[in-house]
Amino acid sequence: MPSTRAQTAGSPPAARHNLILVVTCLALGTVVAAMASLNVALPDLARETHASQTQLSWIIDSYSLVFASLLLPAGALGDRFGRRRALLAGLSIFGAGSAAASLTTDPSTLIALRGVLGVGAALVMPATLSTITSTFPRAQRARAVSVWAAVAGAGALVGLFATGALLEGWSWRSVFLLNVVLALVALIGTLLFVPESAEPQQPRLDIGGALLAVAGLVALVYSVIEAPTRGWADPVTLGGIGLGLVVLAGFVLFELRRANPLLDPRLFRNQHFAAGSLSIMLQFFVFFGFIFVMMQYLQLVRGDSALMAATSMLPMAVTMVPVSRATPRLVARFGFRGPWVAGLVGVAAGMGVLSLLDASSPYWLIATGLVPLGAGMGLAMTPATTSITDALPRSLQNVGSAMNDLARELGGALGIAVLGSLLSATYRDHLSLPGLPGLPGLPGLPGLPGHVADAARSSLAAAHTIGGPVSDHATTAFVDGMHVALLGAAAAAVLAAVTVALLLRSAPRPQQFDDDEVTDVTGSADAEAQEQPAYR
Question: 159: which of 190, 292, 408, 512 is 20 to 30 A away, CA to CA?
Fold first, then answer.
């Protein structure tokens, strides 16, 4: 049944459109920046909370995991019961969770509270775009959506710089207090300027699909993050990874049988849609995993300040922006496949260069890796996103937007989990300290007490606190772990490049659809399947 949009506040006057855009983009920027901003504070967090390397991964990834897992059902709830209500609820949860997080020093509590922030973010992000598309007139909608996309893309880097500046004068708690302030301002702006909009005639939420998706992702990511502590061959690790994959396979089968699925797997029969979704996921797998590893290297190995570490990322940012702006012209001239694959190869090349870093590497080597990384991200992101949206008729553009957001957040969560796990496992395996139980000692140096040895194995920040030869050996082990993690990121980018090249080898250019067209976007011959909404 077609949905009927109801706006309880009526259509806003033209003078309020800019205010609506400012408020929704502020809310969006707040939750997107939180994905990356805390990475800059990891050394301070490790020292003050005594968090292990695995716990540091969880502090960052609990937000991303919950965010990604709830993005589709939260977006459907906002569409059905009101986007303004979703914004208000999400900002309230995000702000309250941030306030509580600023008051704790326990790593487990901080992990749980970051998950609470993820719940709020999942309500906020889809509601911002839906509010824009439902309140702006068609003539102004394209401009507003382009501003939204720019904020979504730049939010992570802005978060890094803002956190670096805050940490120059305050502790890691200031990052959460900034979240509170931004959420409060966005909340007030939503109350004052954002009208309500909803589509109450939408089908009921696919609760079964949502539960299966969340359970599968949590089991998979939990097992990967905990693998360095338990061991990759441990039955719990292997069983958890297997369980996660089985549940996700069950999610696909379940969705195929639903009349109104949360996400219709048949959409991935469209080669452009599949290539775009996979590419976005692997690009952000590389990006957020790289940020997690690199921020620790810059501060704990090179000794840079938080602000200097964030500023070190500038070559990536200043390269990404102009290349991204030039990409549409390149696509128009050479087609999707060439620039897209070249961008992914550039990402892999950047990761390969950065994997050569050691404790004494000059900054020019870092910049040499960041330039192709930024250029590659800018070159690959536009055709990937366009392929997702152009593969669908306009009546299903909410599916494209949701899939683009889901691929990005899921890729980020998995990137932090997998690359952080590789870093942690290699760090523990390569750490050679005098007298450590189960590890080779160094002749002529005294042994270490058991609790000191455990602390050194937990994280590089703890090893630096011990000092002396312990700190030196821990630094070497961390750099070894960083090499493995960044080579893993390079492999992911190569996989993306090969897959996109193969998928687009025989695929026609994505078709531009009109509003009234009914097109088989799933590749299915079933006419009824063509008319079913794929995202609820």
Answer: 190
Comparing C-alpha atoms, which of 481, 532, 452 is closest to residue 56?
Answer: 481
Q: Residue 198 — φ and ψ, nearest 5°?
A: -160, 165
Residue 343: its pLDDT value, please? Answer: 92
- For 112, the enclosing helix (H) or strand (E) is helix 107-135
Q: Please list the residues that pair with 84 across neighbouring strands.
A: none
Q: How many residues does the chain have?
A: 536
Q: At what angle do helices 53-81 and 42-49 cross, to 10 degrees?
A: 110
Residue in this structure with the two tokens 């590890």, named with its chain if needed: 439
Spatial neighbors of 320 by CB under 8 A, at least 6 apart, are 374, 375, 377, 378
pTM over the 0.85 mark: no
Cα–Cα distance list, 427 to 170, 433, 446, 473, 533 (Å)? 29, 12, 22, 10, 47
Tokens 């990475």 belong to 39
Cα–Cα distance, 88 to 99 (Å, whole number): 16
Chain mean position to CA 360:
30
Instruction: Give the residues of the chain that fall short of pLDDT 50.
Output: 1-10, 435-446, 512-536
CA dist 231 and 27 (Å) reads 40
Q: Which of 391, 390, 404, 398 is nearest to 534 (CA)?
A: 398
Residue 442's pLDDT is what?
Answer: 37
Distance CA 248, CA 254 (A): 10
CB 137, CB 16: distance < 8 Å: no
Cβ–Cβ under 8 Å, residues 447 and 435:
yes
pLDDT tens digits along 374-394: 899 888 887 887 787 677 665
pLDDT of residue 290: 93
Q: What local confidence, expressed as pLDDT, does residue 399 receive?
A: 63
Question: Distances in Å between the alpha carbon of 23 and those of 87, 151, 189, 244?
Answer: 10, 12, 6, 38
Q: Are 117 and 125 in contact (CB under 8 A)?
A: no
CB neighbours of 61 closer than 8 A, spacing ≥ 6? Answer: 221, 225, 413, 416, 417, 420
Q: What is the DSSP letter of 509?
A: P
Instruction: Supply φ then ψ for residue 6, to 5 degrees.
Output: -120, 125
pLDDT at 496: 93
SS3 of 201, please? coil
Instruction: List the structure tokens of 12.
Output: 């806003």
The owner of tokens 């938080």 is 306
Q: Which amino acid is at 393?
A: P
Report the half-sphere exposure of 36 (CA within 13 A, side-chain side): 32
* DSSP-assigned letter for residue 268: G
Q: What is the pLDDT of residues 231-244, one digit of tens each?
A: 777 888 889 889 98
Nearest one of 408, 342, 409 to 380, comparing CA atoms: 342
Name residues whose C-beta falls within 8 Å of residue 146's C-beta, 6 or more positions apart in sequence: none
